[in-house]
Structure formats: structure tokens, C-alpha cells
Amino acid sequence: MAANPLKIAVIPGDGIGAEVMPYGVRCLQAVGRIFDVQFEFEEFDFASVDYYEKHGDMMPKDWKEKLSKFDALYFGAVGMPDRVPDDVSLWGSLLKFRREFDQFVNLRPCRLLKGVTTPLANPGDIDFYVVRENTEGEYSSIGGKIFEGTDRETVIQETVMTRTGVDRVLQYAFELAQRRNKKLTSATKSNGISITMPWWDSRVLEMSKKFPDVAVDKYHIDILTAHFVQRPHIFDVVVATNLFGDILSDLGPACTGTIGIAPSANINPSGTFPSLFEPVHGSAPDIAGKGIANPVGMIWAGQMLLGHFGYHEAADALLKAIENVLARSEPHILTADMGGKGDTKSLGEAIEKEILA
Ligand code: GGG
Hints:
Blueprint: E1 6-13, H1 16-35, E2 39-43, H2 49-55, H3 63-68, E3 72-77, H4 86-91, H5 94-100, E4 105-111, E5 127-133, E6 143-146, E7 154-157, H6 163-179, E8 183-188, H7 196-208, E9 215-220, H8 221-230, E10 237-240, H9 242-255, E11 263-267, E12 275-279, H10 296-308, H11 312-327, H12 344-356
Parallel strand pairs: 1-2, 1-3, 3-12, 5-10, 8-9, 8-10
Antiparallel strand pairs: 4-5, 4-11, 6-7, 11-12
Bound molecules: glycylglycylglycine (GGG).
């Protein structure tokens, strides 16, 4: 039986993360009231550049102790590059959560919802997951600079792939494919990146022997991005390294209308540590402070949180509420990224109202 009440650490973060978060919480509370899911929310001001400017660090020293007692983290966005370099804010917060809480799966659904306008000419029925390796790969801090400031300046950054790290995310992706349409696509670039990427391919081949009923195909990342745009309906589960998965899970939602609606679950499958649920989008400094950000990614991330804890009825109802509101395509409700004239408040409140209707 899932925990009830669910103890949720709310970490709004920066920019539009803090603007969409209240609607994520309100929608969870609304659906919780109907399906008898209790929440205990506690909000934290760290993992933000405001906190950094006050304290000289993105998080307090005891952040792990503070957050370990929660069932899940509900996270907005991080980064304000005009104030703190992006790599400092990201490595000081979100990447620490993913690594220290061993959230090695980043699950990112990509679905074309009714009523949402897509830029694609022939979208078909888009409904797939990107499974992104989330704790190693190209996101490594191993490397360095030599001869800085001279003509011989040299910069090196290593990619790290471990057998444990790659096999466990592949296993997760294969299991997901097995529960869905038994089709898995793997993304690499094994002609150009000639050590790590062919090795990833070999681990896919090895893992596929345990899942003979799952059809596997593999693509180089460059042509795969073209297929995402031209034939996105052919995909079901796409597994990729940390960087490639990040890119694909921005491109996928852009093909389904807007990255503003895309959710993401950073999962620690064993439950030893809390998992983290966040919108795919970042802090969007260009629109921050205007109240016009799309709250759907944040709200949908809350839906993934409910599903993660086995509250499937509540999760289905929340997704249905999102779908119903978007399907009505009311310009005064929808945000500008969806072609509307509404704002964060109009769209967030419409979904909350739909849950309670
Ligand atoms: N809501 C997620 C967020 O703030 N993303 C900012 C970002 O750049 N994330 C990088 C990543 O997911 O690897």
C-alpha cells in the first residue's frame, strides 16, 4: 500500500519554476481530496539562485538529511544565468539530487494530446516514452583545462559509462517496453564516438537476450532526430544516454505542441531515496516574472508522482482533467505557447476546476 499521507518536499527553484509550482500543488490537493490521497507538503527555498546569493551555495550542507525523510521531491526549475553560471546552479542542485538520491531513470512521456496544435504536418498518434540515463554518461565533471589563456589551451571532459549504470537503465527501459508495445529504440552515435557508444550498443544487445519478446532497433542520434520530426508515431520506448535523452525529450514535446506541457520523473526505482518529479522545461528567464508560463508540465509531473506511488485512479483523473481542458482549446484559457491569450493562472485554475467538476 502506498504511503498516505505522502510527504512531499516542494522545491520551486528559479524563474517560471516558482510560478508554475503553486498550480501543481493545488491540482494535487484537488485530486487528493476526491480520491482520498493525503499530502504533507513542506516548501524549501534552496536549490535556487536567490538562496545562492544569500548563502554562497545552492543548498545547505545538510540538504540530503533534510530531504531524505520525504517520499518525493516536487521540483520546479533551476538556473538564472545572468546571476549565477548555469553549470554552478545545475551541479549545485538538480544534478546533486539525481546523483545522491540515485535517481538513475529519467522517464519522460511524450504524447500528443487532443486539441493541442503540433508544428508537424503528419504527426499521427504520438505516444512514447524517453528513458534517459540520469546519473552518468556525458554529464560528468571529470576533465580539466591546461595551458589556459595560451594558444595551446586544451579542454577535456570525459564521458563515464559503467556496466552497472547502463545495464540498470536498459533493464528499466526493456521492462517498460515489455509492459507497453514491446518495441524499444536505442539512440547512440557509435560511428563517431567510437568507444563508449558501441559499448552502449553491445549492452543493449546483451540485455535484449533477456527480453526476446521486445523488438529492438537502434539509430544514430542525428537521424533519430529527423525521425522524431517526420515519423514520431513509430516510437514506443526510446532509451538514450544522459545528454541524448535530454535532447530527445525536449524535441519530442516540441513535436507534440510545446515543451511547456512535458513532465519528467527522476526515479530511484528501489525507493531507497525519494524520486523527483519536475517539468522538463527549465526556468525560462526570458518569460520569468510575467505570469505567462504554461503550468501543464508541472501539473503533469504531479500526475506522474501519483502514478509512481500507485494512486492510479487519481493519476488518471488528473491526466483526464488536463486533456479535457486542452481539448476545449479555449483561447482565453491557454497560454501563449499553445496559441492562447491566457496565462499561468487561467490555465492552472481551469485544470484545478476541471478536477473538482
Ligand atoms: N525543470 C527542470 C530544469 O530546471 N531543467 C533545467 C536544465 O537545464 N536541466 C538540465 C537537465 O535536465 O539535465
